[in-house]
Amino acid sequence: MIGRSGGAAALRVGARGWGGHRTIGAALRAAGPGAVISVQPGTYTENLTLERDITVVAEQGAGTVRLVAPRGTPLTVLGGAGEIRGLTVQGVAPDQPAIAVTGGTAVLDGCEITGGRVEVTGTAAPTLRDCRVHAAGGPAVRLGGDSRATLERVTVTDAGGTALLVEHGADATVSGLAVNTAAGHGIQLRSPATGSFTDCEITRTTAAALAVEDDARPVLRSCRLTDGLAQGVLVTSSATGATPAPAPDDTDAGSGPEGDAGASGNTAGVLLHDCEIARSGAAGVQAAGPVLLTLRSCRIDESGGVGVLAAQNAVVRLTATTVGDSADSGLAAGGTAQVEMRGGGLARSRANGAFVTDEAQLTLVDCAVTDSAFTALHLAGSARATVRDGELRGTPQHGARVTERALLTLTGTRVESAELSGIAVDGGDLTARRCRVTDAGTGISLTSAHRPLLDNCEIADCGTGLEVTADTGALVADTRVRGSRSAGVFLGERSTAWLDSCEITDSKGSALVLWNGARPRVSGVRIARSAKNGVYVADGAAGLLTDCDVSATGFPALYVGKDAKPVVRRCVVRDTDEDLKLADGAEPVFEDCRADGVKDSTLPVSAAGPAPVGARAVAAGGASGTAPALGAEVTEAATESLEDLLAELRSLIGLERVKQDVETLVKLMQLVRRRTEAGLPPPPLSRHLVFAGNAGTGKTTVARLYGRLLAALGLLTRGHLVEADRGALVGEYVGHTAPKTTAVFRQAVGGVLFIDEAYALVPHGQGNDFGLEAISTLVKLMEDHREDVVVIVAGYPDDMGRFIDANPGLASRFTRTLLFDDYDADELVGIVAQQAEHHRYELGEATTDALGTYFAGVERDDRFGNGRTARQLFQRMTERHAARLADSALLTSATPDEADAEAETKSLVTLLPEDIPPLQTL
């Protein structure tokens, strides 16, 4: 054993005999605890073992104290608190340690280690201070076991592999580490290792500058990772499992006093604070697997790939962090990754600013995405992104683009200077609130099978302000479109957009364009100072415009094209040269409209006033005129009498119980009105109804009549019917359902809201479904507008109870259920006969008997449609009738005589038993 004799005296070693000892080992054997051994310059070929509190110091002067082992490890530290200062330790082989520390708290100060690594294992807790390590192999410094090493101002150069490896249960405290050129990683942590790294500089590494694997948990502060050939930071895990939950905002990652990242199990909690990652050869920061990575006040610049890349189920949190000049996208996320960025931003990326795909989720709060070469924010797959109080600016493509099944939620966000579209939805869905889009080719372009929501937004100084493309619906509320270089709002072919309380001003083209086949609802929209038309309704378009104000237009305020059938209700045109221009064949309907300050006015302002050719006007108290249906949703009672409406009810085939119930309700409501007129309080009465019955039993027909009856009684102002289902009321994400439900309810004010298959709002086994939000919103609106709207919910009898039980407020509002019985065979024959009479066909007794036999044999399964089945049968009969007569001699006769003409007319209107198709072909 070393140190059998001697005390705390200083000992001197000289290789040429100029000291008390010729070898360091001899001095160690002679030294007592606390002794200081001074070593003269020279080369000492020996293996040293230190296990006590002894200090070995290289003497100052010319030359170096070099320790070279004949074999094995030159310096082994087994324990104690010894200190080695100023020595150069040369290893035998790159794959062997030059210094091995397995125990104790030794200090290596100012040493240089070459030809082999520094290895710390066991429970050792050494300190390396101001040391330089040159290792041809790797790792240059390895910390393993349960060691607790401290590295201060250590320099690693030209490492043949990883510069610093921390693995197993080791915990490293590192400050001032400098890594210059490594054939592997700069810093690598594996397994459950932890570490704190401060003021470190890692440069020119072949692999990632910082690599973290599995559940290792390092904290880096004020570090620089630059000029590597691979990633700046690479965090991975081979574990499987759920995505780790992000830590609270005030929690750091790491171990000990630095806090805990909140990751548990096989997840990595990694924190970088005030660090710089620059000029990496691949991604600046990359995370994959169930890992948690947090960057705060960091800078990621000039990445050779993506600036920040999150894959699989990684969680990445960025706070006050900037990503600039990436060779690829500034930020990309895929798999089920979750990325949250607060403050900071993404700038000058040479692809997308941010790209999110698969089922990844991105949250940007108070961030700026600027000057990207491609789209600033691109969503694909089933990705979801939320942007709050952000900025998307400066792109030759789109500010934000949503494709496939992706979902984007924007709140309080500015989108500026996008050469294509500020926001483009190409198949996904969008919710935008309090957003501002300026200086874009198209402000917002929507192409979606969903119904995107724009609420309280502003679109300014764009080409076209808002474009809703073919077959797309959208809900646009309280939104302002101004200064468009083309159309203000363009609603494409067959669009079903809803515009409510919006403003369109200063358009260089027409303010509002309804293209071919569009059927929008436009309510409370103000249009002013358009260079062309205020509203341009293209050929074949329809739609409903209510309570709109159009002024100061360069062309006629309203243009209606051929076969266009818009309903224009309670609208005002003012302060313009011409209010209306109609194409030949236009069929608009004007109700209660007004023109003020118009030089050349042809707008119908009342039923008694002159109406242009092709236009019909319906004013309050005026002559009747029926508006064309808007998607079978809008019907006006106009001045229909109560007696006529009751007669129409009684003429319905079948439904005897329902007709009796409705007439009873009418009598009760007449009593209510008379008591009210007499100043008496009305009896308790809920006008809302449940219609329970199978498909095709006339529920919609009776609902429409019910609204008209209430209007005739003066209990509803309009009595029109608005049909809705789950798709019209329920959104696909948080915050979308209430506005959708409210918008539909607004359309029904003054009439009836008819919700078919209402039980679909309460799916089986889905307690957190958004349908419950729609029901809650509906209950509140029914209370707030109890005198203005009647709500009828309909569906199969067995399912309506589940709907009523879904919310306590429903049972008190829906106190009466009308049961719609299935039609029997005779009633179905009557429906066919009614259809034949309406279309001027005749049945005859034999055909009527054959129909009775036919309906008696129809299987009443899930496909049986009651009245719908009867109407379908009549259609098939007319088709078979036409086929039967196609080759008839009567029809092909070039010069029929009088008898033939009479026979031909008879054959044209008579349906025979053979015109009834076989049961299985219907």
Which consecutive residue ranges, at least 5 long each, have pLDDT under 50? 1-7, 245-268, 606-638
SSE class: alpha/beta
How many strands appear in the DSSP assignment? 74
Please tally the helical runs, counting DSSP H or I stretches of 4 or more residues.
14
Morphology: elongated
Mean pLDDT: 86
- End-to-end Cα distance, whole Å, is 104 Å
Give the percentage of residues in beta strands: 25-35%
Described by strand count, sense and barrel closure, the largest sheet is: 69 strands, parallel
User: What oligomeric state do these chains adopt?
Assistant: single chain
Kindly provide the radius of gyration, computed on alpha-carbon positions and rounded to a whole number of angstroms: 41 Å
- Fraction of residues in helices? 10-25%
Tell me what you see in this structure.
- Pfam families: AAA, AAA_lid_6, Beta_helix.
- It comes from Streptomyces ramulosus.
- This is Right-handed parallel beta-helix repeat-containing protein.
- Residues 237-265 are annotated as: Disordered.
- The chain is an alpha/beta fold.
- The protein is 17% helix and 34% strand.
- Helix 6 packs parallel to helix 7, helix 10 crosses helix 11 and helix 10 (825-838) packs across helix 12.
- The N and C termini lie far apart (104 Å).
What can be said about this structure in brief?
The protein is of the alpha/beta class. It is 17% helix and 34% strand. It is elongated and about 145 Å long.
Secondary structure blueprint with pairings:
Elements: E1 11-13, H1 24-30, E2 36-39, E3 42-45, E4 48-50, E5 55-58, E6 65-68, E7 75-77, E8 83-85, E9 88-90, E10 97-101, E11 107-109, E12 112-114, E13 117-120, E14 127-129, E15 132-134, E16 141-143, E17 148-152, E18 155-159, E19 164-166, E20 171-175, E21 178-182, E22 187-189, E23 194-198, E24 201-205, E25 210-213, E26 217-221, E27 224-226, E28 233-236, E29 269-273, E30 276-278, E31 285-288, E32 292-296, E33 299-301, E34 308-311, E35 315-324, E36 331-333, E37 338-347, E38 354-356, E39 361-365, E40 368-370, E41 377-379, E42 384-388, E43 391-395, E44 400-403, E45 407-411, E46 414-426, E47 429-433, E48 436-447, E49 453-455, E50 458-460, E51 464-468, E52 475-477, E53 480-482, E54 489-491, E55 498-500, E56 503-505, E57 512-514, E58 521-523, E59 526-528, E60 535-537, E61 544-546, E62 549-551, E63 558-560, E64 567-569, E65 572-578, E66 580-582, E67 589-591, E68 594-600, E69 616-617, H2 642-650, H3 656-677, E70 689-693, H4 699-712, E71 721-724, H5 726-729, H6 737-748, E72 752-755, H7 771-784, E73 790-795, ...
Parallel strand pairs: 1-2, 2-5, 3-6, 4-7, 5-8, 6-9, 7-10, 8-11, 9-12, 10-13, 11-14, 12-15, 13-16, 14-17, 15-18, 16-19, 17-20, 18-21, 19-22, 20-23, 21-24, 22-25, 23-26, 24-27, 25-28, 26-29, 27-30, 28-31, 29-32, 30-33, 31-34, 32-35, 33-35, 34-36, 35-37, 36-38, 37-39, 37-40, 38-41, 39-42, ...
Keywords: ATP-binding, Nucleotide-binding
Protein name: Right-handed parallel beta-helix repeat-containing protein
Family: Belongs to the CbxX/CfxQ family.
